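Each letter names a residue; the fold follows as tokens. Both lines appear below:
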Amino acid sequence: MLSVLISQIEAKIKELGLSYSAVEKRLGFGNGAIKRFSSSAPSIEKVMLLANFLNVSLDWLVYGTNSFNDLTENETEFLTLIRSLKSETDQGKLIGFLEGYAKTLPSYSENEYDLKQEASNE
């Protein structure tokens, strides 16, 4: 499991064009802390901080998979976009905008949306 964690961290840091030391400094970890995860399991707090900073799920970081296995690529991309907005107010604004826009599209299903709204209001 630790080897998956290190591989995932390394891949995401590389994808973002960052360095271990920059991430460690930003998160308040000691120098070389991430590399030491391969020999000494990090605390859950550190793993959560990393997942949040790297904008990935804990499942992806620890196991190399997402718990959202049934989501399409577009749905996953949408969730990533939402998570990139740190303000819940901004997230709500984007969702409101998309709800309004979705209603203008021919493939929009009012019934499906209403059922989801009713379920969330219960």
